[in-house]
Amino acid sequence: MANSATARALPPISPLKTRLRKSFFPTPLSGAISLAGMAFAAWALWHLFQWAAWNAVFIGTAEDCRAASGACWAVIADRWRLMFFGLYPHEEHWRSALGCLILILVIILSCLPVFWRPLRLAVLWVCSLAVFILLMRGGVFGLSYVGEERWGGLTLSIFIFCATALIGMPLSIALALLRRSSLPLVSVVTGMVIDSVRSLPLVTILFAVAVVLPILAPGSSGTKIMRVIAGMALFFAAYQSEILRSGIQSLPVGQDEAAKSLGLGYWHRMTRIILPQAFRRALPPTVSQFAISFKEVSLVIIIGVFDFLASGNAAYGSGEWAFTYVEVYVFMAFVNFIFIFSLSRYGAYLERRMRVGK
Amino acid sequence: MPAAVTISQLNKYYGIYHALRDVSLTVQQGEKVVICGPSGSGKSTLIRCINRLEEHHSGTIDVLGHVLDDNMSRIQEVRREVGMVFQNFNLFPHMTILENCVLSPMLVRGTARKEAEEQAMHFLTRVRIPEQANKFPGELSGGQQQRVAIARALCMRPKVMLFDEPTSALDPEMISEVLDVMVSLAQEGMTMICVTHEMGFARQVADKVVFMDQGAIVESGAPTEFFNNPQNERTRAFLSQILAH
Ligand SMILES: Nc1ncnc2c1ncn2[C@@H]1O[C@H](COP(=O)(O)OP(=O)(O)OP(=O)(O)O)[C@@H](O)[C@H]1O
Ligand SMILES: [Mg+2]
Are A93 and A85 in contact (CB under 8 A)? Predict the structure, then answer.
């Protein structure tokens, strides 16, 4: 098949010069606009380069930075530990770093098709989160105890994201299936829960779990980070369940009927026939839901959780580096970009792969 | 020998629409019944009631000794013994042909994978496409997909096979490859209930031809009687229409 495809005549390719002319200078007016655009881009790039690299200070003190006209990356060099690890005790930073690496490694592993079995994913995640929590909290194996209130920085952000997705994903499947239940009571109640959660801003939910819940049920509602994760997972699940439901509803009814006619019971029909296909169809919105959730983690700052963004604020907020907020935010944006851009490239890869039918 | 399927006084409504009216039909073991009739006459509804893809409102359906009602485990038992082939094939597009065929025997019957695969290859050979086993449904032609669908149903070793217009979605040149498989299945003694407009097939294998109109059975009889000497006016009109082209 591949042979016949290459043997078939390729569409004629015009020379580069013609193609450039066609795309940038088809008429004098658009030619002029193209030129102006290119000039502006060159100007902007040049200034960016001067600021970010040529005149920048990479290592030094706040004094060196004030003397230079470019970016002050020295603040990152000086304060990166605070941004990555928050208020975690300084001599124990290796634990936070290791924990962060474990989570990133597990995220990458779960992107590999070998791990795409519910059981394998569950084992992988439950084990690694248990290791993460043991490592971070300590109190065993000679590790000193570090309370959750001192966790922070990028490590905490990634942990909140992973835990949110890990709890939110099964919850979203359950909600999507319950909402499609043939028992009217079940589907109506589930629908009401989903719609109420979706009609609240995440900030409200975070306030509710962080501030209101401990007042209503003092002492019995877990640590703040646990409650934040629960709130975020609920919010994630409400949206993701509707994404999944649209995937399920887009399947031809014949799929379920064929599965029924083969004698498959409800669980087998859902887990082997319906959900795998629904996930494939719902892939693009699922990827963007993950990206949104990753960014939404920074909202926890408003209830006093010391995440990546809060740590960044602290990094420049202390007097001597106060003027470097642009550099700090650019750096944080860059870190976020790495994560979310990888995520969307991965989504694109998945779509290409699934078009083949696998 | 008890009948394979006994339907008596069956009524079925879609909302207020009366889709099946007092339908009674008995299918003996090994018997081949062809159901025909104009579009919307309730043929699909009737055979989908037999494996409870549709539920009926009054009357009784007895399949291999199980009387169908809301009891889910009884329904499962019936579905295990009754295979169905659909107009649109309904293969599972995210699985290979082989996976399609071994899935249900492994999950429902608890067959070991090796044995299930051997059995799948046996039936794929019977429908003459063993070489496609590792392809995905999307890579096969319509006729091939329908033959896989038959093989997939056979892998459950059903006692009764239901066909709902299995050739209607196929290009003319692919119809015969599917009919050939159905004929050989009939010759082996499978109990078959087929909704089809392939009258050649009906003449060749049917023991009984049933004509439905407006949700009721209008006429039924052995194919020679049915085709050569139809009693009812509507049957005659239908036959002249369908045999004309
Ligand atoms: N899910 C449904 N809801 C409402 N009405 C339905 C439904 N399914 C079928 N009907 C109606 O019931 C009647 C019988 O439908 P059925 O599909 O059994 O006809 P059929 O004989 O199989 O026709 P065809 O040859 O077109 O397949 C039709 O009038 C149809 O409109
Ligand atoms: Mg029909």
Answer: yes
